[in-house]
Design brief:
single chain, alpha+beta, five-stranded mixed sheet, 11% strand
Amino acid sequence: MHAEPHPPDVEWPRQPWFLRGPLLNIILMGAAIAALVTEFSIMLISREWSFGYVGLLLSGMGLLVLFRARWVGLALTTAGSAVCALLAVEFVGVWTVTVFAMFLFAKQAGRVLLAAGMSAAVLYIVLVIRDGGDFESPPALVAATFCVAAAAAGSVIRLQSESWDAARQRAADLAATQAGELRRAVTDERMRIARDLHDIIGHELAVVNINVGVAEISLPAEADGARAALTSAREGLQRTLQETQQILDLLRDAGGDADRRSELALVEYIPALVERMANAGAPIDAHVAGDLPELDADVSSAAYRIVQEALTNAGKYGTGAARVAVTSQGDRVIIDVENSRAAVAFAADARTGYGLVGMRERAHSAGGTIEITQTGTRFRVHVELPTTGSAE
């Protein structure tokens, strides 16, 4: 199965919790509604009947449409504050609704300077008029100042959010670029390995296969034993050539079907493997369960290769028959290979040879575990593989 290279997960920076999502908008909208309700309650308690209610209605309508049509919403809230300031007898500060609306307006998009100037100017003028033309009226100055400050605060938060989003996008683009470069590097390396395999190993195997065939037909008629050995060797070379070609196909087809299954290196071909090795003179006592579950291609191939390497080691270093058992338990395939070993022939450093390293790597890449133990004159390999392969 082809593993897609990817860069490590990036821990994205995050804004403070109170600036994320709709929470801040909800709080400010609630404060604006509270200001309207307060003004409305005061007017009712004082039994006031004036056009000030029209101002409250305009402000409420502005809040309703502020997020859909922000210019219309801001204009309505500003007009509502102006009507209340000019026509309502009891006035406690509906201008604060415009301040909250100004903040929400600036938090959404640009052209804030124009909107802030217009709303602040309207609030200042109507409150100056309400206070009898006093251009130094504290309510007028405070309302205009708060309106400008709300616009500035909303703009700062919006720009900060845009900056965070841009940083996240740049990081994502960089990660995608690095992943693409990594994929290209892996593809180039696969192609290089494929060329080397084809030019060196494939060529040499083909030459040896030809020579074995020539030797086979050159034997005298009575050399049946030698002919049988050469026939077995030629068949083994042909299988090796076929598997080498399959490996070349996989290396060159980096983007191909990840679940493509080899015709030879599968768990169901373990009995044929055992038979060939037994015919070559290796004593093997094998048991392969017939009810093995359906395995992923990488798991099935790993099981076959592990058994193949374990039996090869048994043939090199072992004495007597090797025992092989392939069974299933739940959602796992269990492989046990055990054989007697010659204490002298089996060197101490054989346990760290490439064959055993390869078995460990195959087991781990398939998401399984492997245990290689040496007790007295016994050597044992115990492997457990999941039926669905590694989750990575």
